[in-house]
Amino acid sequence: MLLVLVFAVTGCVDNEARESANQVTPIDVDVAKVPDIAALVPPEIARTGRLVVGVNVPYQPNEYKDASGKIVGYDVDLMNAVAKVLGLTPVYKESQFDTIIPSVQAGTYQVGMSSFTDTLEREKQVDFVTYYSAGVQWAQGADNDDDIDPDNACGLRVAVQTTTYEDTDEIPAKSEACVAAGKPAIDKVKFDSQDEAVNALILGRVDAMSADSPVTAYAIKRTKGRLKPAGPVFDSAPYGWAVRKGSSLALAMQRAVQYLMDNGQYEEIAANWGLEEGAIDVSEINGAVS
Question: Is residue 290 one of the residues assigned to a domain?
């Protein structure tokens, strides 16, 4: 009976995710190729007419699959618009999160797009083009009357998606502080996808979940009252698209997204997905704050 219950609840969550996804229709903004910006694209990429983008799904609302299996989301709509400015056709390749940056380094993908937090450590491997500002937001079960404090979570089970900032930086630092204070470490529970982390929280297998703020907000919305925020948004930092170190593609993409910011299409895309809060006015190359 336990197995039946787990599959039943999980199926319910997946169905709700699909229903919620259907409430937001991807937007195709009106923008044309800008020759001066397109000229910055490396010749070997321009000749192919394609922009090969490595992406990890599901990570709603930024990148995930719709009911037909097509990769959609806020990041996808914005990348589609950037590609138009550059005169290129984006080709999305599904990949494991932790293989995307190495694949960009190797030239398998020209761009890595998976809600990457632009950090100083990652900038040693690739260059980043910033396009959004996201913080960290925790969530807990709505039926838990004890408010969880992310700064006092010693001994709790906390779900994260593997190799994200929350997995590699945030939770380890908080756990080390717990141990240094003579308290139990945080039990970090890793999942390959964000959906699995959400399901684990709903099923009570973990006490809380930590993810980027737009992702947590979307998870709370689509689970219709089963989850609630745990503490405020904190540690805001830029999202960035990863490109090969030293490639002129970084400048081309930075100019392209800045063009969209200056001409209204960027704001239009953010508003369509309800992500105006983290929208930025200026795109940078390597804008890490830590």
Answer: no
Structural domain includes residue 11: no
Q: What is the pLDDT of residues 58-112, one digit of tens each?
A: 888 999 999 999 999 999 999 999 999 999 999 999 999 999 999 999 999 999 9
183: Cβ contacts below 8 Å, ≥ 6 apart? 154, 155
**Are both 76 and 114 inside the same structural domain?**
yes
Q: Which structure tokens are listed for 11?
A: 């199926």
Q: In the structure encoding, which two tokens stand for residue 72, read together?
A: 């959609």
The CATH number of whichever domain residue 59 belongs to comes to 3.40.190.10
Q: Which two tokens stand for residue 208?
A: 């809380």
- What is the signed CA dihedral for 252, 258, 263, 264, rounded to 10 degrees? 120
- Whether residue 289 is contained in a domain is answered as no
User: Are 128 and 166 within one domain?
Assistant: no
Note the pTM of the prediction, 2 decimals: 0.77
Contact indicator for 37, 83 with CB cutoff of 8 Å: no
Residue environment code for 96-132, b if the CB has 16+ CB neighbours within 10 A, otherwise e: ebebbbebbeeeebbbbbbbbbbbeebbeebbbbbbb
Q: What is the pLDDT of residues 118-152, one digit of tens each?
A: 999 999 999 999 999 999 999 999 999 999 999 99
Question: Token pair for residue 16?
Answer: 């709700």
Give the structural domain span for 193.
136-235
Helix (H, G, I), strand (E, B) or coil at 47: coil
Q: Which two tokens stand for residue 32?
A: 């044309």
The phi and psi torsions of 188 (rounded to 5 degrees) equal -75, 125
C-alpha 69/C-alpha 152 separation (Å) is: 40
Tokens of 115: 């809600």
Residue 57 domain flag: yes
Range list of β-strands (E), 126-198: 126-141, 157-161, 187-191
